[in-house]
């Protein structure tokens, strides 16, 4: 595997959002169609000029990378992604725009697993935002 990994510090904002969503989607080791739709809608909201083909390439790269990681590597990668997101977006933007999209993503498959709540807790801590994951 001689493929070079791009450092997280060089990810574009679109890549950072995609990796963040992918971490949450893969917390339960599967990606549902509904979750992927929320990701696609979110990209359109945040980046109206993005190309779906390019976004899909990034999504596939994100999933491949995250799946290949152990739990420790996943956690560290997610922390780094969150740190970079804070450099690109204000706290208000993260809370008012990103947080509701993450809430929608978590609710998309209809069940909230403990692995997802662990990832949410880490994202909340690192981005200093609140994500509503009340299980009704």
- Report the portion of residues in β strands: under 5%
Mean pLDDT: 91
Shape: globular
Largest sheet: none
Care to count the β-strands?
Answer: 0
Instruction: Give the structural class.
Output: mainly alpha
Count of alpha and pi helical runs: 6
Amino- and carboxy-terminal Cα gap: 44 Å
Order of helices and strands: HHHHHH
Rg, rounded, reads: 14 Å
Helix content: 55-70%
Low-confidence stretches: none
Could you characterize what this model shows?
The protein has 136 residues and is an all-alpha fold. The protein has six helices and no strands. The longest helix has 18 residues. It starts with 12 loop residues before the first helix and ends in a 9-residue tail after the last helix. The model has no long low-confidence stretch (mean pLDDT 91).
Task: Label this structure with key terms.
136 residues, mainly alpha, 68% helix, 0% strand, globular
Short précis:
The protein is an all-alpha fold and 136 residues long.
Strand and helix map with partners:
Blueprint: H1 13-25, H2 33-46, H3 52-67, H4 71-88, H5 91-108, H6 114-127
């Amino acid at each position: 595997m001689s493929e070079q990994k791009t450092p997280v510090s060089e990810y574009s904002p679109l890549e950072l959002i995609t990796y963040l969503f992918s971490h949450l989607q893969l917390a339960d080791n599967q990606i549902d169609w509904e979750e992927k739709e929320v990701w696609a809608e979110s990209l359109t909201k945040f980046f109206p000029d993005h190309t779906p083909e390019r976004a899909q390439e990034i999504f596939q790269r994100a999933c491949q990378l995250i799946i290949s990681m152990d739990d420790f590597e996943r956690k560290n990668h997610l922390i780094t992604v969150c740190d970079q997101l804070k450099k690109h977006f204000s706290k208000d933007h993260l809370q008012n725009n990103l947080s509701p999209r993450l809430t929608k993503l978590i609710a998309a498959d209809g069940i909230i697993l403990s692995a997802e709540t662990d990832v949410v807790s880490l994202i909340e801590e690192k981005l200093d935002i609140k994500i509503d994951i009340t299980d009704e």
